Amino acid sequence: MIHIGSRRAVRFGVALATMTALLVGAPAASGHPGQPSAVFDPDETAWAGLRDRTMVEFDADLQKWGVEGGFLPVDLEVDTFTGEPSFGGAFQHNADKRRWFVDTVMTEPEYDTAFAEAERDGLRLVDRELYPWKGQWYVAAAWVENKEGLGWAARYGLTVGELRTFVKDQKRAGRMPIDFDMFRTSAGLRYGVVVLDNPEHLAWHLHDDLTDAQFATTFAAYQGEFRMLSFDSAIGAAAGASAGTQLFGGIWVENRTHRGWIERREMSAHSYANNWHRDADEGYRQIFVGRYETTAGVRYAAI
Q1: Cis ω on the peptide bond leading into residue 177 (within 30° of 0)?
Q2: CA angle 283-197-147, nearest 5°?
């Protein structure tokens, strides 16, 4: 499940040690390559959005869209809510023929090895998914060529306090988040984040542990000036919220070009399909494909 071009040296990248808590619910994370905007956020580009794919089907998708079709993976989705891994992702035209690397079934040690190899080869992390399968954790991840030599860092397995401290420190260092995860473990909710240099000085906000009402309020407050880059949801407990509360989080980034955008959540598979066709017909492209667990069953989200 690896697709990679020729290699060169790396400049930046930081990993985190293996987690020790037992994973009990996989995240519906999203990542996006971020800057430079001219490359990863053009006004128009060819794209593809896929969901509910088996391992074999998604291998074929990577070959069809990425290797043969000249597309770049900008988001991954992997979960095991129904027992076996379910794969999805968003792709867009690889305008500058940038190298990329995806592996969707790695143990944590294998991920550590892949991380180090990608770092050495001049790639930066875009999206990372953790999921339980056959009694252990697995990791799926996507890297893209770091042609610009942007500084970046990645963490996972953080408590909410560690997440907030890390993000605050990275903001002071001039970086922005491009990937955000929240997921259940036996020790409580844990979080992951990938941050990237912000040479375009885009304003941004990362919020975690929002109740449904708080998410709706935050969404409305940012609606004009910002748009969503990342979304996640998990069942947990937070300040002012009881255990078993559906919590939400995500990344909002400055909508400097005033691009029209849509974020949808709480969708069934049927409503997801209907909205996907309607949004595509109206000229939107998908940058995030997500599924997450609720007390009422699996729900879908999209940006």
Answers
A1: no
A2: 75
Query: Are 290 and 266 in contact, with CB atoms under 8 Å apart?
Result: no
Helices within the chain (DSSP H only): 37-40, 55-61, 108-120, 160-172, 212-222, 269-281
Classified as helix, coil or strand, 162 is helix
The number of beta carbons lying within 10 Å of the beta carbon of residue 124 is 28
Helices then strands, each counted (H, E), the chain: 6, 17
Pairing of strands 241-254, 204-210: antiparallel
Q: Quick one: which of 13, 7, 294 has its CA closest to 141? A: 13
- Please, which residues have CB within 8 angstroms of residue 45's CB and are 6 or more apart in sequence? 92, 93, 95, 285
Residues 6 or more apart from 250 whose CB is under 8 A from it?
Answer: 180, 206, 207, 228, 229, 230, 231, 232, 263
Pair 292, 232: CB distance under 8 Å: yes
Q: Which amino acid is at 128?
A: R
Amino acid at 134: K
* One pLDDT digit (tens) per residue for the chain, 303 residues: 333 332 222 223 333 333 434 445 444 556 788 899 999 999 999 999 999 999 999 999 999 998 999 999 999 999 999 899 999 999 999 999 999 999 999 999 999 999 999 999 999 999 999 998 998 989 999 999 999 999 999 999 999 999 999 999 999 999 999 999 988 888 889 999 999 999 999 999 999 999 999 999 999 999 889 999 999 999 988 776 777 899 999 999 999 999 999 999 999 999 999 999 999 999 999 999 999 999 999 999 999
